[in-house]
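Researcher: Good morning. I'm working through a list of sequences from a screen, and I'd like to move beyond sequence-only analysis. For each chain I'm collecting a predicted structure so we can compare shapes side by side. This is the next one on the list. No need for commentary yet; just the structure.
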Amino acid sequence: MNKSTKIFILLTAVILSAVIVPARCFDRVIMRDTGVLTGKINDICDISSRNGKNTDIAEKCASLDLYWKNRKVKWGFYMNHSVIEKIDIEICTFESMAMSGDGNLNGQACKIMRIFDAAGEQNTLTLMNIL
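Model: Good morning. Structure tokens for this chain:
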């Protein structure tokens, strides 16, 4: 192998590592964050289905809102902003429905989970997403 071939292989490995490593880290962050958000949403649905106190629902909604606002900023660095905006709108709608005691809260929760799934699939490093 000549020197230029070795340099080419080395540079290719460095460039691929610079892309793959951060992408895998972002995948893990999204999976972790969506898991936490899903848990918080399910907690609110459980309290609502048991006809829990509005103060309990308000506390859980505040916790969800705070967690999401922190994640929204971080996700903005590596996720499509239209997806973040969609999640933001759906979470706001969910919180509003939870506070008003709307009976279709589980449907809204399901909608948010589907957006999480789609967002995770769009940002996962796969051959389809690269091409």
